[in-house]
Structure formats: C-alpha cells, structure tokens
C-alpha cells in the first residue's frame, strides 16, 4: 500500500510545482473618467474605464494573480465587477451568456 501512495504524492507535488512555476502576475491600471461619446447623432456623457466601453479585457490563466489598480476620476462613486469569471460556491458568479 505504501508503494502506491509515494508515486501519487510525487505526481501531485510535481503537478503543484508546475502550476506554480507557470503562474504569473497580471497587472492592469484602470483610469475611470467621464467621456463624451456620439451615439445616434447625439452626444452623451458616459463613465468609462481607459476611455473604452465596455472596459478593457483582462487576459489571465488559472493560477495567475490579477492586480487591478482603479483610479476614479469621475464625480461619481463606483464599483467594479467582472463578467465571464466562473466562481464556484458563490452567488456572485456572473458569466457571459
């Protein structure tokens, strides 16, 4: 029985080490501000991150650490939320359809 446990433990340790080695720190800065856009021949003031709507895409892989710096330059309080992230065992999962 002990002979089978050691190879499984070694495989698990090797898998864990490989996942930690390939992990990266993905860092972004969001400058949130009001901008004027023209939609349907009419100018409208919107709040956007890095002058884009929808906001910038964050590309990361499983195991990566994501750091996002948010600078609110708009006159409004704001919250940031993410689309397309699978969150197990939480009611806050908000996946794209």
Task: Sum up the structure in keywords.
alpha+beta; Cu-oxidase-like_N; 97 residues; Immunoglobulin-like; 32% strand; elongated; 1 helix; copper ion binding; Plastocyanin-like domain-containing protein; signal; Cupredoxin; single chain; 22% helix; three-stranded mixed sheet
State the shape.
elongated
Beta strand %: 25-35%
Helix fraction, binned, reads 10-25%
Say what oligomer this is.
single chain
Q: What structural category do the secondary elements indicate?
A: alpha+beta
CATH topology value of the domain at 24-79: Immunoglobulin-like
Rg of Cα set? 21 Å
* CATH architecture call of the domain at 24-79: Sandwich
- At the first level of CATH, the class of the domain at 24-79 is Mainly Beta
Main sheet specs: 3 strands, mixed
CATH superfamily of the domain at 24-79: Cupredoxins -  blue copper proteins
Domain Plastocyanin-like: 32-92
GO molecular function, one term: copper ion binding
Family: Belongs to the multicopper oxidase family.
Signal peptide: 1-23
In brief:
This protein is 22% helix and 32% strand.
Q: Overview of this structure, please?
A:
The protein is built from one helix and three strands, in the order H-E-E-E. The protein is of the alpha+beta class. The chain has a domain at 24-79: Immunoglobulin-like (Sandwich), CATH 2.60.40.420. A hairpin with a 2-residue loop joins strand 1 and strand 2 (42-49). The protein is elongated and about 65 Å long. The model has no long low-confidence stretch (mean pLDDT 78).
